Amino acid sequence: IICQIAQGRLSDAAAKAVNELLPSGAGGNLSSLCSWADRVRFRYHWSAPLHFIDVPDNVCSYSYDRDCKDEEGVKGRCVAGAINNYTSQLLTYGSSSLSPSSKSSGQYNLTEALLFLSHFMGDIHQPLHCGFASDRGGNTIDVHWYRRKTVLHHVWDVSIIQTAEKDYYDEGAGEFVDALNKNITVRNCSEDCFFV
């Protein structure tokens, strides 16, 4: 849903670049590959810590210098660091040293950069991806969603969305996206930019 909303709000130039960078199998649809970063995290083991930010328990603030690191303490290895990294890579697209339709800058795979960035923009806005280290993103917190036993992270990532689509939008993601788009304001966007 995040990628579908984002793609619909791109400038003409950005939409053209996204279309050029997407694999042909995507049919120009960024949302069809928005979960790609989740699917490859087991092949690209190095990418696992890029999906979240852990802050010390009971510290209700985030500091890039303190918190953006992986379990070994390597700085920049969190979702905010990944967004910085992949944004920088994508800014090389269309530079004079590249052919206009190049999907690689030689140094970077810009298609992968686009897919990682698109996914991580959703992750950083997901409360369970940015929280206390001991919470492990809600993956160790057992809950019941209606009659189904699951973990809190799954409820937030999947169950709430599926239930809303089914109960309010006749299982139509398009209607759901339209409703969400109507509620996005300039103020929402500027507040998000402040926090990111």
Quick gist of this model?
The chain is mainly alpha-helical and 196 residues long. Helix content is 46%, strand content 7%. A hairpin with a 2-residue loop joins β3 (142-145) and β4 (148-151).
The tally of strands reads: 4
Helix segment tally: 9
CATH class: Mainly Alpha
Low-pLDDT stretches are none
CATH fold-level label: P1 Nuclease
Named CATH architecture: Orthogonal Bundle
- Rg value: 18 Å
Question: What is the H/E order?
Answer: HHHEHHHEEEHHH
- Could you give the distance between the termini? 19 Å
Structural class by helix and strand composition: mainly alpha
Measured as a percent range, the helix fraction is 40-55%
Largest sheet: 2 strands, parallel
Morphology: globular
Task: Show the helix and strand layout.
Layout (H helix, E strand, L loop, with lengths): L1 H7 L3 H10 L14 H5 L12 E3 L8 H4 L11 H12 L19 H15 L5 E3 L9 E4 L2 E4 H17 L4 H10 L3 H10 L1
Parallel strand pairs: 1-2
Antiparallel strand pairs: 3-4
Helix pairs in contact: 5-6
What does this protein look like?
The chain has a two-stranded parallel ribbon with strand order 1-2. Strands 3-4 form a two-stranded antiparallel sheet. The chain has 9 helices and 4 strands, in the order αααβαααβββααα. It has a single domain, classed as P1 Nuclease (Orthogonal Bundle), CATH 1.10.575.10. The relative contact order is 0.12. The longest helix has 17 residues, at 152-168. With 196 residues, the chain is mainly α. Strand 3 and strand 4 form a beta hairpin. The protein has helices at 2-8, 12-21, 36-40, 64-67, 79-90, 110-124, 152-168, 173-182, 186-195; strands at residues 53-55, 130-132, 142-145, 148-151.
